[in-house]
Structures are given as C-alpha cells and as structure tokens.
Specification:
This protein has 405 residues and is of the alpha/beta class. Helices cover 44% and strands 16% of the residues. It has 2 domains: 124 residues, Aspartate Aminotransferase, domain 1, CATH 3.90.1150.10; 244 residues, Type I PLP-dependent aspartate aminotransferase-like (Major domain) (Aspartate Aminotransferase, domain 2, 3-Layer(aba) Sandwich). A 7-stranded mixed beta sheet has the order 3-9-8-7-6-4-5, with helices on both faces. Strands 1-2-11 form a 3-stranded mixed beta sheet. Bound molecules: pyridoxal-5'-phosphate.
Length: 405
C-alpha cells in the first residue's frame, strides 16, 4: 500500500479549503456574476435583472456594435471556428495579416503581431527580446502580466537584472536607469516598461519625461496601453497621443483587443519590424500556442475601422468622463484625479469595498470593489469605469446610487 505523503490530494484539499474559508471569513471571497445578454451600458444580470454597468472595459461601446458582431459572424462563416494550429505551422489566416497591418498603421509603427491576450503578448515580449546582461526597469504599479513577464525572463535568460521605481516617480526612474547603466555589459540593452494608463489608479504615465530619460540613458521604452488604446488622445490612439507624441516615439507597444477594441479577447505587440520578426521566430507563446481566433481578428479589425471612422466616440467618452468625475467630486467622493475612464473611489478596507459593491448591485448599479491582492492592503476601492455607451441618465443613475450608499 502506498503511504500518503504531504503531496497527496488530501493535503491539497485541506490547504485549498483553508485558503477559501479564510477568504470567506474575511469577506474577500469573489462571487462571479452571470450576464444573460450582451455587454452594453446596461446588462442583464442573473438574479438582479437589468443593471447599469460601470465595471466593464467596453470603453467605446463597441462590444455589441452590429458591425463588430457581423464581422465576427462573417469570419466564422468564411474561415470556420478554429485555426487548429499555431501561427507558424498552418494557423496564419488572411484576417491575421489584415488586423496586424491595421494595428501598425493605427499606431504609426512598422509592424504588429497578435496573441490570444495582452497577457500573452507581454509574457512573450521580454523573455523573447531580452538577452542575458540586459536590464529591465519597471514601474512599481505595472500590470501583473508585466511583473510575471519580468520574473519569467529572469528564469529563462539568466543574468537579466530588474530595477523597480516608485509609481510614476521620474527621479526614481532616473536613479534606476543610472544604476542599470552602471553595471551594463557591452552590447546589453536597457528596457523601461510602463502601463500607459495604470489600471487600478486610472492615472497615466509621464511618457514625455520617460522618453527623455530613456534617450539620455540609451534605453528602449515599452508601453502597455491596454487601458489607453481607443481611450486616450484626440483620436483614441492611446496615451502617447494624449501627450501629442507620435507612435514612433514609443519603442514597443503592447495592448489588448479585449477592452475598447471590441472587447472579445486578444492582444498585440507593435513596434519595429525586426522586433516583431524575433517574436514570430522565437516567442514561445506563439511557437507553442494557437493563433488568435479568426472571428476575433475580424471583429477587432472592424472595431478599429469604426474607431477611425467615428472619432466622435472618443469625444463622447471624454465628455462622459468629465461629467462623471465632476459629479462624483461634487457628491464628496474621493476620486483619484486623471483624464482617464477609470475612476477609482478609495474606501480602504477590502471587505468594505466588496460590501459597497454588493449594496450598489441591490440598487441596480454594477460596480466592482477591488481589494488585496489586486491592490495593496488598505487601499481597497470601487473602480468605476466610464464608457461612450453611457448616456447622461446612466451617469446620473450611478451618482444617485453612490449618494444613497
Ligand atoms: C495594463 C494591462 N495589461 C494587460 C492586461 C491583460 O489583458 P488581456 O485581458 O488581453 O490579457 C490588462 C487587463 O486587465 C491590463 O490592464
């Protein structure tokens, strides 16, 4: 009879139960809500009925746009349900090229390459493009996938050093760059990486200052603009456009197709042709994992086409953001200031944030409370996200419900 050791399923069951009951006891257990119709300004939630939706990344209201839906259906009809392959074997279809060319043109860079998510795009970037001796300088509040990508890089490419600076602290970045440069071997590269829009704060990276510092130190600048693409700048190009910087001033972009650009799924890396070529040749997530589904590529292409055709969607989003932020401030809420569509209301305690979000849902307003470990302990918040799909009545409904809290 084999003996039961610490590795047996019994040990796992006890450990899993203990973690879950601790989450339950401290009010931190997440409950998945089920949506019974399309994503829009309002959604139909199981057990709650029609609710105002203020927690989706559907910034431009394109997730259920008839042309975006139709493009996906056409893709399904013309190319079938799946690629049944990774890109380099037999998984590259016409819509992949069309989408990647469109993304590159949209951002004003040489090339782009798609992945099944922005998480995967970021996870591919550093482990593929870095080599031993390189240094990665990263903002402390960068998205989890950037953090994990850097961790993975230091395992795959031993000798890559990591330097973290305080969120958006340009003196901190300058110091980190000087440190990274001091120990840099001949031929090695310094990479500076930041979110364009910080997903939990709604604040934006100081890209002009970052560009200057990168130029001073000969470093490359990588911007993950998942919450900036389609949102920031006059025509929704992203956070660089907010600062009137051309896309060519950013060495590499990563971003998602799962938010403003149709919201289905998928992500990309965009930048110089040679960098994209290296990802195609050597990126493990693309060599060993299936291509972006063609239906999604078709929908995302259509979403970018609509964005280019209708820049007024970005204007409406901006007007909605201004209105909501002003009303929230007038109502006395502590909202972190910024021009983005993410308006976090800081409440402190995780259980309190979750309880507030539950109460809002009872009033027909869907806003999520974020707590530890998604944000630091003691900085739990309600994250309100504004969309171009919202009308003034929706925004007023949010403010009224928040006041009643
Ligand atoms: C800054 C940032 N990067 C990457 C991602 C991941 O995007 P995706 O859902 O496409 O993997 C997110 C999503 O929350 C994000 O906010």
């Amino acid at each position: 009879m084999p003996t039961r050791t610490a590795q047996t399923p019994g040990a796992f069951a006890a450990r899993a139960d203990s973690i879950l009951s601790q989450l339950r006891d401290t009010g931190q257990l997440k409950h998945l809500q089920t949506i019974e119709g399309p994503m829009d300004a309002t959604v139909r939630l199981r057990d709650h009925g029609e609710c105002l939706c203020f927690c989706s990344n559907n910034y431009l209201g394109l997730a259920n746009h008839p042309e975006v839906v139709e493009a996906g259906i056409r893709g399904l009809r013309d190319f079938g349900a799946g690629t049944a392959s990774v890109r380099f074997i037999c998984g590259t279809f016409t819509p992949h090229h069309e989408l990647e060319d469109r993304i590159a043109r949209f951002l004003g860079v040489e090339a782009s390459y798609t992945f099944v998510s922005a998480w995967t795009a970021n996870e591919a970037l550093f482990p593929t493009l870095c080599e031993p001796g390189d240094a990665i300088v990263s903002d402390a509040l960068n998205h989890a996938c950037i953090i994990d990508s850097i961790r993975l890089t230091s395992v795959i490419k031993k000798g890559v050093t990591k330097h973290i600076y305080k969120n958006n602290d340009m003196q901190g970045l300058a110091d980190a760059l000087a440190k990274a440069r001091a120990g840099l071997p001949e031929g090695a590269v310094i990479w500076v990486v930041t979110d364009g829009v910080f997903s939990m704060e709604g604040s934006i990276a100081d890209l002009p200052a970052m560009r200057r510092l990168c130029d001073e130190h000969g470093a490359l600048l990588v911007v993950d603009d998942s919450h900036g693409t389609g949102v920031m700048g006059k025509t929704g190009r992203g956070t660089h456009e907010h600062y009137d910087m051309p896309g060519s001033k950013i060495d590499f972009f990563t971003s998602t197709l799962g938010k403003a650009l149709g919201g289905a799924a998928g992500g990309f890396v965009a930048g110089p042709q040679r960098g994209v070529e290296l990802l195609i040749q050597r990126g493990r997530p693309t060599l060993f994992s299936n291509a972006l589904p063609v239906t999604v590529a078709c929908s995302a292409s259509k979403a970018i086409e609509i964005l280019e055709r209708e820049p007024q969607r970005v204007e409406k989003l901006r007007a909605n953001v201004k209105y909501a932020r002003q009303k929230l401030a007038e109502a006395g809420f502590d909202v972190l200031k910024s021009p983005t569509a993410i308006c976090p209301i800081i409440v402190g305690d995780t259980a309190k944030a979750i309880a507030m979000s539950k109460r809002l849902l009872e009033m027909g307003v869907y806003v999520i409370g974020f707590g530890y470990p998604v944000v630091p302990e003691g900085e739990a918040r309600l994250r309100v996200q504004i969309s171009a799909a919202h009308e003034t009545a929706h925004l007023d409904g949010l403010i009224d419900a928040l006041k009643k809290l």
